[in-house]
Give the backbone structure.
Amino acid sequence: MAEVRYEAASRLYPGAEEPAVNKLNLDIADGELLVLVGPSGCGKSTALRMLAGLETVTSGSVHINGVDVTLKPPQDRDIAMVFQNYALYPSMTVAQNMGFALKQAKVPKAEREAQVREAARILDLTEYLDRKPKNLSGGQRQRVAMGRAIVRKPQVFLMDEPLSNLDAKLRVQTRTELVDLQARLGVTTVYVTHDQVEAMTMGDRVAVLKFGELQQVDAPRTLYSAPANKFVAGFIGSPAMNLLDAEDVDGAPGIAGAAIPLEESVLSQLKSQDLDQVAVGVRPEHLTLGTTGIEGEVTVVEELGSESFVHVTVSHRGEPTTLVVRDRGETETGRGDRVKVDFGGPIHVFGSDGLRVEA
Amino acid sequence: MTSATTSSAAAISHEEEVRRLERREGWKRRLPILPALIFTIVVTQIPFLFTLFYSLTEWRLDKPDPRKFIGVDNYASLPGDKFFRDAAWVSVQMTVMAVLFSLIVGTLLAILLDRKFFGQGLIRTLLITPFLVMPVVAGFMWKTQMFNATFGVINWVLNLFGFDSIEFATRFPLASVVVVLVWQWSPFMMLIVLAGLQGQDQSVLEAARVDGATTWGSFRQITLPQLRPFLELGTLLGAIYLIQVYDHIEVIVGGQPGAKNLPFYIAQRSIGGGNRFGLASSYSIIVVIASIIIANIGLRVLSNLLEDDS
């Protein structure tokens, strides 16, 4: 049971100009599942490895349960890590893999075996205890890697894209199992992924990183409904938010010649800004196809059965621009149709500095 | 009716065409190998058959008697032949010591090279060079520049510390040859072990660190088991080559007793003045059989290695 704190923690690789992780400040509560998410190269894995002690913290500090562990080696941090490729010990059986950490800690054999059996029971691995990793399927290997972590009863779990080597169906299934397991064990967990769907579905809170800088850390719902800046707005959500540079329509921001319905408080904040630099974003489900609004032509229809996404090309700032609109499933709309797109929900506005303009 | 006949006839000719193309494809693959295969048969297998035949004869060049077929008499005489037993024992000692020590030295060098440092490439190349030196040259270098009682570097160092000079090649013939063999073969072992170390998944070692293993603990429990097939491979390839060593012995200790292995003794008993070609041939067959046994174990190890990868 422990909370984790990053205090202005940075990692600058030798010879690099920019730090891979730049002054990261993050407080993770006891028992929380925090997801670090971002595109590749954003520093999320580096941040995790700094917590593990596998990466030097070049400035700032890292704390586990109130203790400064910045300079401690991994073995003194009481953490367990699940690696992307599982990193199982190839010459050992499943039982030996899971008991390895206890053996290093000189736990007596009988006790060790009892704990391994208990973890194997939780993860449904009992019948595989005598097998070598190479004789297991991908999903079983992933569970052994989990087992190796939970046997330890560590203060913190660190998970570095643990599901990315599984096929799509197993990944979704394991995702929910993992969330359930983490909640039952109540161990603080830091989880790294590049997949924003995974981040949204698993995290108690999600921290979005870009170029080594923390963009926003919030509950998934807040991240979705109130993205702090243009990057988060574009990164979170699938399909992505329609994010466009605004057009000046009679002194107010607009899209394709149409003014956007904005609250007075937002408009007043934009008064001092150059409207060409302002960005507006609307999620596909907050646009509707109807008889009023911006006129355009349908170029692609993505039919998913339960819903469909209609790509409408409109003329915006003099150029053809695509707006994605969510429509009901089994839509009659087809390629080439002339349609009208209207606003039907919240509109996000980002000032010339890229930050959200709050109403 | 007509159309059906035509189509079946067409099907047959199509099948024939496929077979013809497959045959041609097979020859396309075999043809380039043929010259090498024929050459190998001519220079290794035919002489081997001759040797096998000679080993069943009494054939001496110092007597006018014709070559005489004597069955397995040569082989029957081997167990009672003290020179043969000595040579076989020297072969065993020399091979085992040279393989074992070069494996240990090679592994230690590989561990040192398996970390990043400035000038790594240069040092790796320098460490490999002993393996590239011709055996005869290596023998002469060690005999004249290292072991020599008057001019040798080792004795010069000994003298600096007040010890008397030692004629190593005479006093310790077997050890002297083994030292040179270890010097030449450690780089080979180093390369094989280095390949094993560098093929190791780094995240596995990181996992061991997170799991609380010490440096020595993770080497013993994780790295060494993974190196096993590489160590076995090095042992077998080294043994196959080292059982045949001749040059080093000829150059360093010559005809002195104490370091004569089987190949050396074979040469001595035949072209080296012994003139007993039939008997020497039977020794050769014994060495070949020993090598085949080692090579067979080697192949099994290799196939295990490939199985592990899949």
